[in-house]
Amino acid sequence: EAGVAQSPRYKIIEKRQSVAFWCNPISGHATLYWYQQILGQGPKLLIQFQNNGVVDDSQLPKDRFSAERLKGVDSTLKIQPAKLEDSAVYLCASSLDDGVYGYTFGSGTRLTVV
Amino acid sequence: QKEVEQDPGPLSVPEGAIVSLNCTYSNSAFQYFMWYRQYSRKGPELLMYTYSSGNKEDGRFTAQVDKSSKYISLFIRDSQPSDSATYLCASRMDSSYKLIFGSGTRLLVRP
Q1: Alpha-carbon gap: B41 to the closest alpha carbon of chain A (Å)
Q2: Minimal Cα–Cα distance from A1 to chain B, Å?
Q3: 3-state helix/strand/coil string of chain A
Q4: Which one of A7, A45, A55 would you mutate to disrupt binding with B, by most B Cβ within 10 Å of its Cβ?
Q5: Which pLDDT band, with edges at 50, 70 and 90, does B101 fall under?
Q6: How far is A59 from chain B (nearest CA, A)?
Q7: What are phi and psi of B43, to 5 degrees?
Q8: What is the pLDDT of residues B11-55, one digit of tens each?
Q9: By CB distance 3.0 to 4.6 Å, which of A106, B55, B109, B110 could disulfide with A4?
Q10: Cα gap A102→B98, rounded to integer Å
Q11: Cα-based distances in Å from A76 to A36, A84, B27
């Protein structure tokens, strides 16, 4: 099966600019996750979708981050305005149902804010 | 206190060695335990998952969970240079989809 697709792979922006990341999950996977991985740390969940609906966005900085999942398939994550501390790898993952047996991650988008 | 803790390493071993990677966790409600492998500039890849306490073996990999001591282990037998990567442990509760990750241990297997 095709994996989780993410784009772009890399992005460099100046602080206060905006940026958007795109994710296409594995076909048929109802649950989609966005994780943030800062260098030297483990991934941290930002938001989780079940089909079109948000299940958990408790750790999403909503004053600057937004995410949507259209028609229960693709998803975009946006940051506006970006801060230096947003420099990280943004990982998208998907799973069947509740992810009891783990998720499949994409390769991520590496964001550098200068 | 972080919910899941790992020694960041790096851990350097010769090819063929048995590797032991460990995590501790603080939340007694965690029931699912997973190990992910992450190569440089790649996303994490699921290696093993375990429900509750016990052992699970898959080829050269063995995962162990001891809920009484809140200790998670991954053993790699006959380690290969291709095993060189960062290993992340992760846990979750029955009632939540959210995986809580440790910070990862870097492993280097020397030829």
Answers
A1: 7
A2: 15
A3: CCCCEEECCEEEECCCCCEEEEEECCCCCCEEEEEEECCCCCCEEEEEEECCEEEECCCCCCCCEEEEEHHHCCEEEEECCCCHHHCEEEEEEEECCCCCCCCEECCCEEEEEC
A4: A45
A5: very high
A6: 11
A7: -80, 160
A8: 999 999 999 999 999 999 999 999 999 999 999 999 998 988 889
A9: A106
A10: 10
A11: 14, 21, 32
Give the integer Cα–Cα distance in Å for B33 and B41. 24
pLDDT per residue as tens digits for the range A24-78: 999 989 999 999 999 999 999 999 999 889 999 999 999 999 999 988 899 999 9
Interface of A with B in 6-35 (CB under 8 A): 31
pLDDT per residue as tens digits for the range B71-85: 999 999 999 999 999
pLDDT for residue B72: 95
Q: Is B42 on the interface with A (CB under 8 A)?
A: yes
